[in-house]
Design brief:
With 339 residues, the chain is an alpha/beta fold. The chain is 42% helix and 16% strand. The structure holds nicotinamide-adenine-dinucleotide and thymidine-5'-diphosphate. The site of nicotinamide-adenine-dinucleotide has 30 residues, from helix 1, helix 4 and strand 5. Thymidine-5'-diphosphate binds next to helix 6 and strand 8.
Length: 339
């Protein structure tokens, strides 16, 4: 089986590459990644010499390049993680989100039509559903919840979902979509809440909390997400959408305080800053469909997952320090320069 994993030098894609190479010793994993600021070859260092792994630097919106990759690699499955993924950046500069998340997805879908594949899987997000009110803890996102986006990021991801569904219906492309809640774990880029807080607390720096810190996210340990995608690409029904989440809701303030406590530091580090415009209040996934149809269940609950994650950041200080000081962007040149 040949699987193209786009965005495999990023957080979740990188974890998925590791997961798949570990689990299957007869699958070839081809990572196609543009190495934007969020792509980090140091995340792929443990697998770089694995005979079943190949890295290709390239943009999913570059049609000629994508077609060439399909022609040469003859993929059976595409798992599309590649995206601009940070809401705050999408508020500052939306255009690149439209190019990568929408046009990039359409190029991959066209390549699938042209060359034929067994499955195209779109890694989407619960943010396409918009948000839920804080005072209605009885409400959850199901696959039937209407798309109702808030940020340029979520609007671009919802557009991509609709395109994927359109290619499924119109061209009978064998597609699946997963919509997962917020992930955390190893190799998470330190511009996102959890790794940013861990790095800042370890460096005794202020921890910025947007607004009152009362927004709720439904945190999933990244390996549980990888396992769900593995199940969907193998056993998920063509044309279906699967929500992924494990009922681990926490307010941002709870998350921040948990990390500060675990590291034995003072809550005085917490600094309330201006709120994000259009800030989604609460995300909460109902995972009944994937649990019933595919037997998926999360294995790592928040209290244990956050401990493991903090330990990983302590043990892998160089990985995130190289991001903060910019060193990580030299890694590709060092490893692949001239090749
Ligand atoms: P990330 O920002 O850490 O990684 C994105 C990767 O995509 C990077 O390696 C980057 O270099 C690559 N990339 C960006 N533009 C590209 C392009 N034009 N062509 C090829 N590669 C490109 O993102 P992440 O947090 O790992 O998220 C991965 C996917 O999962 C995204 O599609 C995101 O929408 C989705 N998702 C993320 C979360 C989360 O909590 N992080 C939750 C649900 C869904
Ligand atoms: P983030 O990790 O950016 O994920 P998303 O916006 O996709 O959910 O943010 C998670 C939550 O944390 C979100 O409610 C915004 C908030 N936040 C802060 O309070 N401070 C920060 O410095 C960051 C990056 C996020």
């Amino acid at each position: 089986m040949n699987i193209i994993v786009t965005g495999g030098a990023g957080f979740i894609g990188g974890n998925f590459v590791h997961y798949m190479l570990n689990k299957y010793n007869d699958y070839k994993i081809i990572c196609l990644d543009a190495l934007t600021y969020a792509g980090n070859m140091e995340t792929l260092e443990p697998v770089i010499n694995n005979k079943n792994f190949k890295f290709i630097k390239g943009d999913i919106a570059d049609r000629n390049l994508v077609y060439k990759v399909f022609e040469e690699q003859k993929p059976d499955i595409i798992v599309n993680f590649a995206a601009e993924s940070h809401v705050d950046r999408s508020i500052d500069a939306p255009e690149i989100f439209l190019k990568t998340n929408i046009i990039g997805t359409s190029v991959l879908l066209d390549a699938c039509r042209k060359y034929g594949i067994k499955r195209y899987h779109q890694v989407s997000t619960d943010e396409v559903y918009g948000d839920l009110p804080l005072d209605r803890t009885d409400l959850f996102f199901t696959e039937k919840t209407p798309l109702h986006t808030s940020s340029p990021y979520s609007a671009s991801k919802a557009s991509a979902d609709l395109l994927v569904q359109a290619y499924g219906r119109t061209y009978k492309l064998p597609i699946t979509i997963s919509r997962c809640s917020n992930n955390y774990g190893p190799y998470h880029f330190p511009e996102k809440l959890i790794p940013l807080v861990i790095a800042n607390v370890l460096n005794d720096r202020a921890v910025p909390v947007y607004g009152k810190g009362e927004n709720v996210r439904d945190w999933l340990y990244v390996e549980d997400h990888c396992r769900a995608i593995d199940m969907i690409i193998h056993d998920g029904k063509e044309g279906e959408v699967y929500n992924i989440g494990g009922h681990n809701e926490r307010t941002n303030l709870q998350v921040v305080k948990t990390i500060i406590k675990a590291l034995g530091k003072s809550e005085k580090l917490i600094t309330y800053v201006a709120d994000r415009p259009g800030h989604d209040m609460r995300y909460a996934i109902d995972p009944t469909k994937i649990e019933n149809e595919l037997g998926w269940k999360p294995q790592t609950f928040f209290d244990y997952g956050i401990e493991k994650t903090i330990k990983w950041y302590i043990d892998n200080k160089k990985w995130w320090e190289n991001i903060i000081n910019g060193e990580y962007q030299k890694y590709y040149e060092k490893m692949y320069g001239g090749k």
